[in-house]
Amino acid sequence: MKHPDSSLFPAFAAVAALLLTAAAISASIIYVYRSDNTVKEISVSEIATPKAELYKDSFERSGSFTTPYGTFTPIESVLDINEYMTKNPVVLTEKETLPYICGEQGDPDEIRKTIKELSDGICSEAHTDSEKAEAIAMWAGLNVAYDFDAAKETGDLSVTSLEAILTNNFRTTCGGFANLYSALCSAQGIQVLNMKGGTSSDGYTRAQLESAPANHEWNGVKLDGIWYYTDCTWISDLSFSDGALSGGTEIMPFYALFSFGEMSVEHRIDRCEYRNYGFENVK
């Protein structure tokens, strides 16, 4: 697929400017929660509870864990591989991360600047890394749409790179949700990982998680020494299909910073990456 035209980058800055203007108008509000076709403003103090206080061990695995779909006991082998993968990520260099930012014709410095401005706007009223990580997850869940039209054709970097997400009005697939979350957290100096693997979806039950195909992406994020997991695709119910946008009323905040045991009930990690987006020199 042809890479997006680099002439579109001024539009990226305009997108960030609009978001920052909105944040300035209502500085105490981080995101909007849509429920039953109503719109409710939610501040950090209402929802961004530091979950690090809830989990004392990154890899707690005893007993059962509750998700929005019930209480379940994770499969032991999935717990083992998920702990190993989280502890042993593949570390990508800045050069190796570049394709996740843009194509060969793109301007990575301009994209980094836009993402940093967007991240700063989202986190303007968040004070701790936990608040920032949760605010970013909720923002992504409320503003990024799963592009079913694109998914029918491809799920590669032409859809999931930061360049593609910005160009396509925040429409992407699960790889793009995870890539964007990773970049927005990295822009705040938060340690974050990208994860790929199987889930209990598309006809596979939690009991079949060991054999589920590796067709999903999500994130791990380290806060106060504890690993949490975020699945922005599963937070969101926004979708773009047959050229139309729908949803936005049934988001699932549970999937913003859930625990290792909760993650292992429904997710199996096959690959874990640290991506160096190169925000160190972005002003």
What can you tell me about this protein's structure?
- It is built from twelve helices and 13 strands.
- By secondary structure, the chain is of the alpha/beta class.
- Helix 3 crosses helix 12 and helix 6 runs antiparallel to helix 10.
- The N terminus is likely disordered.
Summarize the structure.
The chain is an alpha/beta fold and 283 residues long. Helix content is 39%, strand content 22%. The protein has a five-stranded mixed β-sheet, sandwiched between helices. A four-stranded mixed β-sheet has the order 7-6-11-12.
Descriptive tags:
four-stranded mixed sheet; 283 residues; 12 helices
Q: What is the helical fraction, as a range of percent?
A: 25-40%
Radius of gyration: 18 Å
- List the uncertain runs: 1-53
User: What's the rounded overall pLDDT mean?
Assistant: 83
User: What is the approximate shape?
Assistant: globular
Q: Can you write the helix and strand succession as a string?
A: HEEHEEHEHHHEHHHEHEEEHEEHE
Count the domains. Answer: 1
Query: Number of helix segments?
Result: 12
| Main sheet overview | 5 strands, mixed
The class by helix and strand makeup works out as: alpha/beta
Q: Find the count of extended strands (DSSP E, 2+ residues).
A: 13
CATH topology: C8orf32 fold
CATH level 1 name:
Alpha Beta
